[in-house]
Amino acid sequence: MSKNAFERLSPFIQEYIYRNKWTEIRDIQVAACEVIFDSDSNLLLASGTASGKTEAAFLPILTELYEKPSASIGVLYISPLKALINDQFYRLTELLQDVGMPVTKWHGDVDQNAKNKIMRSPQGVLQTTPESLEAMLMRRTPAVLSLFSDLKFIIIDEVHYFMDNDRGVQLLCILERIQNLTRNVPRRVGLSATLSDYSSAESWLNSGTTRTCMTPKVSSKNRSLRLSMQHFPITDKEKDSDITVYYKYLYDITLGKRCIIFANSKSNVENIISRLKQIAETNHLKDIYHVHHGSISASLREYTERKMKESDGAIVTGATLTLELGIDIGALERIVQTGSPFSVSSFVQRLGRTGRRGNPSEMWFAFAEEDSNSDREFYKKINWDFIKCIALIQLYLEERWIEPVSKNSLPYGILYHQTMSYMASMGEVSLPQIAQNNLTLGVFKNISKDDYKLLLRHLIKIEQLELSERNGVLVGVEGEKEINNYEFFAVFEALFEYAVKNASEEIGTIQQPYPVGTRFGLAGRTWEVLEINKKSQEIFVKSVKGLSTNMWLTPVSCPLHTKVMKKMRDILLSDEEYRYLGDKAIIRLQEIRQITTTARITETPIVKLTENMYGVFPWLGTKAMVALSYALEQQGYPNAVWGGVTTICLLLHTETPFSELTDVLKKIQSADIDKYKFNVPDDAQISGKYNKFIPNELLRKQYIEDYIDVDDMQSGL
Predict the structure, then answer these.
(1) In a designed cystine with 428, which of 161, 444, 472, 497 is the match (CB 3.0 to 4.6 A)?
(2) Which tens digits make up the pLDDT trace of 169-223?
(3) DSSP readout, 165-233?
(4) 702: burial class by Cβ within 10 Å (0-12, 13-18, 19+)?
(5) E strands in 439-524
(6) pLDDT by residue (tens digit) across 49-58?
(7) Element containing residue 104 per DSSP (H, E)
């Protein structure tokens, strides 16, 4: 144990360490102590799951707070998930129970009495989400000043998650607004298990402050990995039998284990767990199967989390993204992934759920694939998801590479949201005052004054805002409807859903009201619709036996990085049989390699598909491929992107000779391209909850800036 770091911790923390029989303070915890105790910098702690990051942040920070008490809340802990807050609450309460330092949860599920108590006597640690902070700023502005007037530290958990979406932009706005209110700039600490580009994370963490950020470089022990990938062909002739074999395999590899089965859609999760329950029932075995995703009620999700954490025996939970983040669910023996993870980051996050306490990290992949029609075009016979999965694994195994976070340089939707939030908290203000308090926030540094004027004029026109007789600005009639809706606090879009109830118990939600008598799957069980109340958006059901299916309208969009596409090409060019591939997976890989070799798409970027159709296979990521598509169109070659998010190729209908097309690609590669001259449709936009309030020309500008990557396209050709 590092004596120096240990001795600098408060006595109650030393006692906690002894009581929990720690044999050492880990390197990352020693490094965090040095930054917190010996500098005034922000701190980024980036290391693997279960490496002790949370303790590394809290132990020195709580020591500082204990020895130099704050006149308000001293530590603000921010998490993307209520479940993470609940988990940390119990851990912190145990740590602080002997020194009388309160830990308070503040989110939608917390009793109002607890919130009133902390407002009367603000002290200790407050745990919350960005949405709850937003509501606090809008509805309790004076309380914010009291709660955070002497705030010393802000801890942001799962910082990589926030960096990659609108919630992170919202969070940075909120933190800077709190700073402006309190005239106090607390130190920030970010925690992440999946970062490769520390500099961008440091810049994100520093946004709106004048501090530097320190990221300790600590050596991590090479953990042992166990990987397996199996392929299950589903033939037309033996379809039912082949599907049974696939589910029996999932059952066998999870039997007697503590596992999570990750699938990429809620319906797949429900189908898998229903099948495993049926097999277990046939074998007269105990039902140990659970479901965890965003459409399951909070009470059932929390029940599953408790069961996973407290149970010593076997337990199998089917999940989507909801169990990817760092909720403490106890020691897991195996992760099973059906299909491919969305990204290297997702793979690493899921893999990190196992391998604690010195055990190997273990992840088993299973691909069920229906036979390709022999008459289809060659590129449609390839399971690109299968090849992508191998590429994701190899990028991590060979290089420890993880995708850099996508930029969000023109977040007009969040600017609308923060403008309305500010107006709700302030009442009537002048136009210059609105600009001074919103456009100066760090995350909006790339948005010009002219663009903001255009947005404000548009908001006045559509009655989100209105001008007063004194030429001030107020929330408009339509704006009142938005800010008074409880969903306003969240910047992510929630789909319209019906609550599913079995008597008084809420099971979860679905997105379409099935007719009475219909059977569907939810929470790993099958239900029959008894009654529908469209006014209250409730569906009443009863539990029935048997299998059923469900459909959710929640596709996940995750733009693919060019490095992943290049790795896919390398895998197709290679003859390596990766050690984790099962026999049928090797056979399928060999089949795909033969297809691509015959088609020559790994050798040349252009192949002739039919008499008047070419395929362009440049092995570019999503945003670079979009840039190439527009560049070709600009040169007089209309085309279509094929492959969805995994942008495999561009299809061109033209009578142009092959050699001329090759010259066109070379010209595009070296040209000085202005992407704002591309023929981008007027209604082009990146999806966002508040797009309906943004002028089309601004949405188009955001799309061009953040979704068309000319530099990556040219360097990748």
Answers:
(1) 472
(2) 999 999 999 999 999 999 999 999 888 789 999 999 999 999 999 999 877 666 7
(3) SHHHHHHHHHHHHHHHHHT---EEEEEESS-S-HHHHHHHHHTTS---EE----------EEEEEEEEE
(4) buried
(5) 465-467, 473-475, 498-502, 505-510, 519-522
(6) 667 889 999 9
(7) strand 103-106
